Amino acid sequence: MTTRAGFVALIGEPNAGKSTLTNAMVGAKVSIVTHKVQTTRARIRGVAMEGEAQIVFVDTPGLFRPRRRLDRAMVAAAWGGAADADVVVLMVEAHRGVTEGVERILEGLQDIGKGRTVALAINKIDRVKAETLLALTKDMNDRYPFAETFMISAEKGHGVPALRQWLAGKLPEGPWLYPEDQIADLPMRMIAAEMTREKLTLRLHQELPYQMTVETEAWEERKDGSARIDQIIYVMRDGHKGIVLGHKGETIKAVSKAAREELEEFLGRKVHLFLQVKVRPNWLEEAERYSEMGLNFKDGNT
């Protein structure tokens, strides 16, 4: 049997379902999934097997109109992920259709998509009627020559196996890029930090999640097989620290418990998780924070 391997970039607006699709394809949770937009910061790679093919998913940050340095670095990472991939999949939400953001992405594809296989995945199909789907499919294909169109529900798994099978057949022949049992190429320290950040994002109100970051400071393997993980949550103001800690420390306790439980399930062993909150007013302007997130600090320049 001939083996195949290659990179597939999922691009789209924030909240289009890219992280959910990555996790559905890989069969494990490697990408942060929340109801809040712009939560994926690094180009997380999940590895899926389909027959003799190894598909490496680059789950890019959502493409949006950037306002801050971090936004610009995220958008640069997203387009960079598409430019480096063998196949690009543009995800759009069925119920939102061709938004202004989708139109901007289609413009970007005119350049990035040259000489590359680009597919369209219309997600959240359970939210609209069949005639709406057909009209959207026609509209999108009139705007760009997609190699194939898939109608999926990443959350429910509809259409996901057909998309994965098609992608496997489009990858170049060659040896696998990762060991068969590896599901992500992010260091575990970063995956652990993303899990904690997801729990914080889910608990806190709209603006704060984008003004904080989580780093795994230390990881100690214990003799009894458990792991001790120390993490720092960086926030920009003293007031933010109070919000993260919560009344009598209730918020941070709940976040720590939820993150620890998910880490234990992911690692299959006991975890001792210790969280600290530190105020760093300028963390958004520190190169070190960006490299911890897998982003290029220079990409954030205006």
UniProtKB/TrEMBL annotation:
GO terms for cellular component: cytosol; plasma membrane. Residues 38-42 are annotated as: G2. InterPro entries: G_ERA_dom, GTP-bd, GTPase_Era-like, KH_dom-like_a/b, KH_dom_type_2, KH_sf_prok-type, P-loop_NTPase, Small_GTP-bd. GO terms for biological process: ribosomal small subunit assembly. PROSITE patterns: G_ERA, KH_TYPE_2. Pfam families: KH_2, MMR_HSR1. Residues 152-154 are annotated as: G5. It is a peripheral membrane protein. GO terms for molecular function: GTP binding; GTPase activity; ribosomal small subunit binding; small ribosomal subunit rRNA binding. It comes from the Bacteria. Residues 12-19 are annotated as: G1. An essential GTPase that binds both GDP and GTP, with rapid nucleotide exchange. Plays a role in 16S rRNA processing and 30S ribosomal subunit biogenesis and possibly also in cell cycle regulation and energy metabolism. Belongs to the TRAFAC class TrmE-Era-EngA-EngB-Septin-like GTPase superfamily. Era GTPase family. This is GTPase Era. It comes from Antarcticimicrobium sediminis.
